[in-house]
Amino acid sequence: MDLQLWLNEDLIRRQNFLKNQFIHIYREVGNALLNHNLKGLSPNPASPKISRGNDLNGLPYQVLDLIRDFDPLEGANIRLLNWFGVGCFITLLLGKNTSNPVSLLLQEDFLFGLSENQWNYQDLILKRNQTDDPLVIANTNLGFHHWIKPLNVVVEPTANIEAFTAQIKKILGILKLAGQQSRN
User: Any alpha helices (H) in the chain, and if so which ranges?
Assistant: First the structure.
């Protein structure tokens, strides 16, 4: 047992402080988006939810889920994933029958996830099982559409809140536009 690590009070306090800073950032981002109309994006949108855990491939993680409709056919979810030791990512999960705005998301530097399990972040992120090739995306039949993009994290929490909120608002705009185009 690594008793020196276990008794390293300073390191443990620093990590817990950092975790709390990310929770604060996620809370502020969620609050900033509470007034956005999400009903047009999903038949069953829910309020934002923050979740956390200690073992995503052995590392702590935190997520902020927005829309929170995981229906495999019509659902949509936007997720901020803070994976300690790996990075911060934004993901967009769309049901199989939901409009998939490929070119607009590629323009925003998203990559399309090719993992057969939409929750397999080791495959999606660590093994980079993703593509930006529109032809590959068009020929992929996973039963869902999963997009992923790394986010830059800076020292100033307020700047992260603003950047994350702006990125999510762009995605919401893209989803609304795609929904309008599919109805026309």
Answer: 3-6, 9-32, 102-107, 121, 134-138, 157-183
Question: Which pLDDT score is estimated for 10?
Answer: 95
Q: Specify the 3-state DSSP secondary structure of 41.
A: helix
Long-range contacts of 32-38 (CB under 8 A, 24+ apart): 32/161, 32/165, 33/66, 33/165, 33/168, 33/169, 33/172, 36/169, 36/172, 38/66, 38/67, 38/172
**Tokens at 106, concatenated:** 């590629």
According to the model, what pLDDT value does residue 183 have?
Answer: 56
Q: With left for phi above 0 and alpha for psi between -120 and 50, is residue 57 left, alpha or beta?
A: left
Give me the domain span that covers residue 10.
3-183
Buried b (16+ CB within 10 A) or exposed e, 108-118: eebbbbbbeeb
Q: How many domains does the chain have?
A: 1
Counting as low any pLDDT under 50, the low residues of the chain are: none
Q: pTM of this prediction?
A: 0.91
pLDDT of the residue at 181: 61
**pLDDT, tens digit (0-9, with 9 covering 90-100), for 9-48:** 999 999 999 999 999 999 999 999 876 766 677 777 888 9
Amino acid, res. 72: P
φ/ψ bin of 21: left (φ > 0), alpha (ψ from -120 to 50), beta (otherwise): alpha
